[in-house]
Amino acid sequence: MVVKAVESVLVGLGIAAVCFVPYLAYQYRRYGQFSASRLVWSAALLIYGTALASYTLFPLPSAAYCARPHDLLVLDPTVYFRDMWAMHRDGQAWTDVLTSWTCLQLVLNVLLFMPLGVVVRHLWQVRVLGATLLGCGISLLIETTQFTGNWFTAPCPYRVADVGDVMTNTLGAWLGAVIALVIPRLAADPDVMAAARNFAKPVTRGRRYAGMLFDVAWAGLVYATVRVAMAVVYVGVMGADGYDRAKAFSFGQTSAIVSQVVCLVLVLLPALIGSGASMGQRLVYLKPVPGRPNPRLWLVVRALVVAGVALVLLFWGAHWLAWAWLITAVVWVLPRPRGLSLTVAGCQLVDTRVPAGGAH
Are 296 and 274 in contact (CB under 8 A)? Predict the structure, then answer.
């Protein structure tokens, strides 16, 4: 039980880490700002989902288990109560009945779905009825998955599909949604955030780092895509029989250079268009404003000071120096959100949206 809980947390956190950048981008485009509380509760929902999958689908059955017949379908929703009544009728005290595994299983089925009701109410603003129906639907999906042996992918059905579980799970989702009505909101109100989406907000270190993170993620994605595409073309042209280690190494170096050149173009191109902001800065509603003559020239300088220099260093094989330069740029934001590139280029960084209470 404890091992499954730890595994669920680790898997959920892993999925959350992979989804962090896309989710952060979604928050900025949907709400115009970052909400730590919504991010935390979204991660909690992922962990909760992996926990549900872990507890309801694993471990998979062995061949010995599948060789024996099992009754794995329960359509009587009163089984829990009839079993507990039978235990009392056979002479067990009610204290023993209420602490038995049968009663504990019923209670756990309710408790298992209570967090779902709370989270979807606060995170998605689902009404009590909607949260209850969602809990019922998820429980039905789980029981159907168990009845069909993971949709016929497991060696055999190996978990009991119980109508009583659907009822207790649904009750848990309803209780969680009701509890959510009387406790403080645990996530920022999406309607309030969306209403303020088009108004300017302070240029904080968090926004600067978010923009830098988007730029790095975008460059990394482009770099990897170009290299993979070139590798696929190379293998397709050369074929398995034409593989040569020396040629493959040489091609790998060539593809790395091509990928770096493509990234350099993608760094430079935004500086020549519109506000001159990088892709990441545009995503978080920021733009550089040059304070010197020939503003476009200084926008290009801003684009090349960090990313351009790092790519050139990578091109010449000075990898450690390139990483040291990137780390310097990251640390530079700590004392002043303007950062290294804008300081060198003599640019200020402003919000692109309408100031609150006035025209842009």
Answer: no
pLDDT value at residue 248: 64
Closest CA to 121 of 156, 329, 113: 113
| Dihedral angle computed from the Cα positions of residues 118, 123, 124 and 130, in that order, rounded to the nearest 10 degrees | 0
pTM for this entry: 0.76
- Residue 239 scores a pLDDT above 50: yes
In the chain, where are the structural domains located? 2-59+70-195, 205-351
Mapped onto helix, strand or coil, the DSSP state of residue 347 is strand
Tens of pLDDT, residues 137-176: 999 999 999 888 889 888 888 888 999 999 999 999 999 9
Tell me the sheet residues that pair with 161.
73
- Helix, strand, or coil here: 192? helix
pLDDT tens digit sequence for 2-24? 666 677 777 777 888 888 899 99
Exposure string for 108-136, b = 16+ CB within 10 A, e = fewer = ebbebbbbbbbbbbbbeebebeebbebbb
| Alpha-helical segments (H) within the chain | 2-31, 36-57, 63-67, 79-89, 94-98, 101-124, 128-147, 149-152, 163-182, 190-195, 205-238, 245-271, 279-283, 295-303, 309-315, 319-332, 339-345
d(C-alpha 356, C-alpha 157), whole Å? 59
CA distance 86 to 193: 55
Short-list 261, 119, 98, CA closest to 179 = 119
Report the distance separating Cα 55 and Cα 53, nearest Å: 6
* Residue 3 near residue 59, CB atoms below 8 Å: no
Tokens of residue 14, six digits: 């892993």
163-182 helix and 79-89 helix, angle to the nearest 10 degrees:
100
C-alpha closest to that of 63 among 153, 149, 140, 155: 155
Helix (H, G, I), strand (E, B) or coil at 22: helix
